[in-house]
Amino acid sequence: MTSYISSLDQAKVGTLVNEMIRIREDLTAAALEKKVKSLFESSAHKIKSLDASWRPEQGAPVFTIDGKYTSRGWTEWTQGFQFGAEILQFDATGEKESLEAGRAHTVAYMASHVSHTGVHDHGFNNVSAYGNLLRLMNEGRITEDAGERNFYELALKVSGAVQAARWTNIAGEGGYIYSFNGPHSLFVDTIRSLRALALSHQLGHVLMSENDKRLSLLERLLKHAEATARYSVYYGEGRDSYDVRGRTAHEIIFNVNDGNYRCPNSQQGYSPFSTWTRGLAWAMCGFAEQLEFLATLAEKEMEPILRKAAEATCDFYIQNTPTDGIPYWDTGAPQLHRLGDWAGRAADPFNAFEPVDSSAAAIAAQGLLRLGKYLGNKNYVQAGLTVCDTLFAEPYLSCDPAHQGLILHAVYHRPNGWDRAPASDGVPRGEACMWGDYHARELALYLLREIEQKPYLTFWSKRK
Predict the structure, then answer these.
(1) Is residue 74 part of a domain?
(2) For strand 61-65 and strand 68-71, is the pairing parallel, antiparallel, or unpaired?
(3) N or C terminus of the chain with fewer C-beta within 10 Å?
């Protein structure tokens, strides 16, 4: 079966592509309790191992090589995941050593990320660190301290405003937060990073511009989300010859002179007209999360737009992922055909042709769970649980104490060849990455809170 159907006839698509994930109807969060707790047991050792070996002067850890975390200069977007992991570990287990490490590292190393004007990743870096700490204080999980609270809140206010300042207007009244590639570039990833603007807005902050103009962070959040839904997601409505409902483009290019859309592009996927599955996962999770957040503001106007995008991307993931819920790195990867009916069986991270991307699965599963919860749709929830059931066990969950990674078989940048390929076939396998490990912990914490009947996990919270 082909990886995507380049036909505009959606009825035909429906006959060719059925649910490829074999959704387990019997699964519950409680049924995964043993796997979730095993994950956090393994996580504790790996956090300590990385902390003991990491050298700040080498930059933020990005992915593992031979089981050891190493840096990879491109943009600084993973530091918050490193320290956020420590904070999530405390949230899940009550290990105070992890909390104190997360606090100390945030104070010592995260300030430059708050004011970083060169990235679109504030929601990754700063919400994972400062945001988690503020959430825990709001929940009463850590001791109330006015000075500490003000520190977290100020960092989050500034971070959201700095991210929102990376702005390009597009034709009409829209606009978007542009990527590190420049003002012409809209990345699908950024939909998940909008949490920085959301928190800054929730804290009452605005972006001050020329002539003391006050710019609403909520307005910029909504405009960026709408642009992503409109341009980064396909709906089978005849946009181009590869318009299949739920596909995503990693990058969208605009003409900055007149604000018009020009074309799709891809930095980390195989092509602009195939679907890089981690980009798809960012969209799934980001749209679902923003639907939840905007519901707290009674923001109804954008709901149909974001819901349409969330449902389309989640449906595409279900329909274009192997039976166990773990995707290959791109639905159009050039050697997938050599695997035969790759979508009709479980993913094979040890195959000799194309790598899987476990980090995409960790992100996508949370999107499925959140959208299912938001819509009251059991099919999405069960699909998310099915992914978790696979991801939280070998060969994906790393139980090797000598390996610093938590979730194995992740891919960072396949086109650039950055990922370690241990065999002569050149296919990356056996390594982990900061975002995959962080999102696996966040996903496991989401389930643990349901299992233990604790408050629903969101990136935002209100003071008790």
Answers:
(1) yes
(2) antiparallel
(3) C
- How many residues are recorded in the chain? 464
Joined together, the tokens standing for residue 451 give 């299992």
Domain span at residue 363 reads: 10-451
Residues 6+ apart with CB under 8 A from 135: 458, 459, 460, 461
Q: Is the peptide bond before 395 cis (omega within 30 degrees of 0)?
A: yes
Give Cβ neighbours of residue 232 (< 8 Å, ≥ 6 apart): 186, 188, 191, 248, 249, 252, 283
CATH of the domain at 27: 1.50.10.10
In this prediction the pTM is 0.95
CA–CA distance, 380 with 23 (Å, rounded to integer): 9
Closest CA to 360 of 387, 389, 386, 393: 387
- Residue 368, both tokens: 């499925």
**Which is nearest to 191 in space by CA: 280, 61, 320, 73?**
280
Cα 135 to Cα 463: distance, rounded to the nearest angstrom: 8
Q: pLDDT of 366-384, one tens digit each?
A: 999 999 999 999 999 999 9
Low-confidence ranges of the chain (pLDDT < 50): 1-18
Does residue 270 sit within a domain?
yes
Structure tokens of 35?
A: 């796997």
Give the tens place of pLDDT for each residue, 117-173: 999 999 999 999 999 999 999 999 999 999 999 999 999 999 999 999 999 999 989
- 376's CB contacts (< 8 A; 6+ apart) are none
Alpha-carbon distance of 153 to 174, in angstroms, equals 29
Q: Write down the residue that tokens 């320290």 correspond to.
A: 83
